[in-house]
Design goal:
The chain is built from 7 helices and 13 strands. By secondary structure, the chain is an alpha/beta fold. The protein folds into 2 domains: 5-71, Beta Barrel (Ribosomal Protein L25, Chain P), CATH 2.40.240.20; 78-254, SPOUT methyltransferase, trefoil knot domain (Alpha/beta knot, 3-Layer(aba) Sandwich), CATH 3.40.1280.10.
Length: 255
């Protein structure tokens, strides 16, 4: 069984002894039940991944001693996920799976139909960190503070295309909203998107309002897409779309 991985922002170099954060120490000692002398792997996006050992374990905390380098760092794709927070468990799932799927930044956005009242970014950061430790990536995604959708898009870098899942269409009486105004299939659309940097926007339960759709479609960098003939839950849409993006545009292509 491979050694546990710990994301540590301190400089990693041979012989360095680094105190673990309180939550990490608790997890390593109480959950993983590791003790002094046990091996772990430590990593960050700057210094790569290193072999280390637990140097000390006391009631006050735990420290590790860095030994030798195992891997050079590898950058995650420049991929952002903007998502409308939903119920707590579903939001947790979005953050966890987006981390596993290689998103570099996660940005909660408040839309007119967003139902989540509060978003605890510290808690989401902890979820992202744990997911990063388990999935062999070298960093945890940035977690931005929630913003209204219009504010999040204010001053947007037009060189970063923003793909958004638009299932509403323009005809409420037709199946899946009708054909007029619906986006092209995501996979087909990605073939025309330049490689480099990209963002994905997933709406709330109930989708975007007509006003929000008009705003989005009026922006030159926004690309509406369809995720198929079925209406997906928000968390399923995020996971499915990120998977397609990574397979077509991201780092899955090099695996």
């Amino acid at each position: 069984m491979p050694e546990p991985r710990l994301l540590i922002e301190d400089v990693l170099r041979p012989g360095a002894e680094i105190a673990l954060e309180e939550g990490q120490a608790r997890h390593v000692g109480a959950v993983l039940r590791l003790d002094a002398g046990d091996a772990v792997r430590v990593f960050n996006a700057r210094d790569g991944e290193w072999r280390a050992r637990i140097a000390a374990k006391t009631k006050r905390g735990m420290s590790v001693r860095v030994e030798d380098k195992l891997r050079e760092p590898r950058a995650t794709p420049d991929l952002e996920l903007l998502f409308a927070p939903v119920k707590r468990h579903a939001t947790d799932l979005i953050v966890e799976k987006a981390t596993e799927l290689g998103a570099r930044r996660l940005r909660p956005v408040i839309t007119q139909r967003t139902i989540a009242e509060t978003v605890r970014t510290e808690r989401l950061a902890a979820i992202a960190r744990e997911a990063a430790e388990q999935t062999e990536r070298f960093d945890a995604p940035e977690i931005a503070e929630p913003q209204p959708l219009a504010k999040a898009l204010d001053g947007w870098d037009a060189a970063r295309p923003l793909i958004y899942a638009d299932e509403a269409g323009d005809d409420a009486a037709a199946p899946w909203g009708g054909e007029r105004g619906r986006g092209r299939p995501l996979l087909e659309t990605l073939a025309d998107v330049p490689q480099g940097k990209l963002a994905l926007l997933i709406g709330p339960e109930g989708g975007f309002t007509a006003e929000e759709r008009r705003m989005l479609r009026g922006m030159s960098y926004v690309i509406p897409v369809s995720l198929g003939p079925r209406i997906l839950r928000a968390e399923t849409a995020a996971i499915g779309a990120l998977s397609v993006i990574q397979a077509s545009w991201g780092d899955w292509r090099g695996v």
